[in-house]
Amino acid sequence: MKISEASRASGVSVRSLRFYEDRGLIVPGRYSNGYRDYCRSTLDRVHLIRSLLESGLPVRLIRELLPHLTDASDVSPELLCAEFLAEVRLYRDRLNDRIAALDTQRSALDAFLDGTP
């Protein structure tokens, strides 16, 4: 499918698809006229990229991780270097900190709302 169709099917903007390609995260095929050709597996990869970006991982780490995510199985720690895993753990810990802060804010808002008439 062409880029506009892939954008609609994936819910990701055309600009984002081009960005992912520029950063080496996806490699769509090409028609003879030069138009991009997105297959189902590329769209599946786009969804995975979005999920990883939403988790807070930077593109640099996602690019390192993607070759190890060829299917739905877990990533084997032996395949990834200790430095990479340490960075992923750091992002996970930051995410946990943000969740805790948001939970505290929500509790404060709940307390405020419970105390209002």
UniProtKB/TrEMBL annotation:
Q: Which SMART domains match?
A: HTH_MERR (SM00422)
Keyword Glycoprotein among record annotations = no
Using the record's annotation, list all stretches that form the HTH merR-type domain. Answer: 1-68
Q: Which InterPro entries match?
A: DNA-bd_dom_put_sf, MerR-type_HTH_dom, MerR_fam
Record keywords, A-Z: DNA-binding, Repressor, Transcription, Transcription regulation
Fetch the Pfam families from UniProt: MerR_1 (PF13411)
Can you name one GO molecular function term for this protein?
DNA binding
Q: What is this protein called?
A: MerR family transcriptional regulator
Task: Identify the species of origin.
Answer: Actinomadura soli
